[in-house]
Amino acid sequence: MKELIMVDNLEKTFTLHHSQGKQITGCKDISFSINHGEFMGITGKSGAGKSTILKSLYRTYKPTSGRMVYNSTQFGPIDLVSASDREILSIRKNEIGYVSQFLNVMPRVTAIDVVLEAIIEMGSDGVKAREQAKDMLAHFKLPETLWDSFPRTFSGGEKLRLNLAQAMVKRPKLLLLDEPTASLDQKSKEAVKDMMIELKQGGTSMIGIFHDLEFMETVVDVEYHLADGQFKKVEKV
Predict the structure, then answer these.
(1) Please, what is the angle between helix 186-201 and helix 156-168, to 10°?
(2) 52, 61 in Cβ contact below 8 A?
(3) Count of structural domains, the chain
(4) At what angle do helices 186-201 and 126-139 cross, to 10 degrees?
(5) Which range marks the domain in which residue 104 is found?
(6) In this protein, which residues make up the domain named ABC transporter (predicted)?
């Protein structure tokens, strides 16, 4: 399998049990593939279903139908739609990262420990791991005065930068990014861009949702647009 991931006719519907079983379509007829080290950007209006695609890939949502064949280091080609929970958890831990606009961490864990735990999860420990955590926090311009603080006190931009540091320090095989530059100033955006380029050069593939089209065009290799249920590749002029 030469592609890193191949998605074929992905569909996710939601059942509203409090509305007599009414069904809402999150996304449907989604098909694409990306290669190793390729960066795909997804654009479209809010509510079009972009986040549903990412959450289905990460298996936060279990797709209703379709196939998502991922070339796993651990398992070989595996359909993420039918993969077991155990397989999905192992792939998340070691191969696929996810960055959302919202930080979800234990309430009394410091910022540096959030990143440190991600490094330890990959098999590193000791002084070297702590130095890696510090370097990543510094790269994303998170003030050193905040490293030993609890993230619940952070601003939206600070939480997003910590989220990026936590996911990118693992240098995953595939990184899913949901609005990775939302609420960031220009200097922080440049730090994100530099890390994205470094990860791409190291072989990480990425799929990102963007509203900041100017930023997106500087990092992605291919763009897809989602509108009115149609998922189409945008041909560059």
Answers:
(1) 10
(2) yes
(3) 1
(4) 130
(5) 3-15+22-234
(6) 5-237
| Consecutive H or E run containing 197 | helix 186-201
Listing DSSP states for 118-180 in one string gives HHHHTT--HHHHHHHHHHHHHHTT--GGGTTS-GGGS-HHHHHHHHHHHHHTT--SEEEEEST
Please list, in sequence order, all residues whose beta carbon lies within 8 angstroms of the beta carbon of residue 144, skipping any fewer than 6 positions away: 137, 138
Give the mean pLDDT of 80-86: 97
Which tens digits make up the pLDDT trace of 154-210?
Answer: 888 888 889 999 999 999 999 999 999 888 889 889 999 999 999 999 999 999 999
pLDDT tens sequence across 21-53:
788 899 999 999 999 999 999 999 988 999 999
Supply 115's token pair: 């990143």
Query: CA geometry: angle at 23 spanning 20 and 28, to 5°?
Result: 175
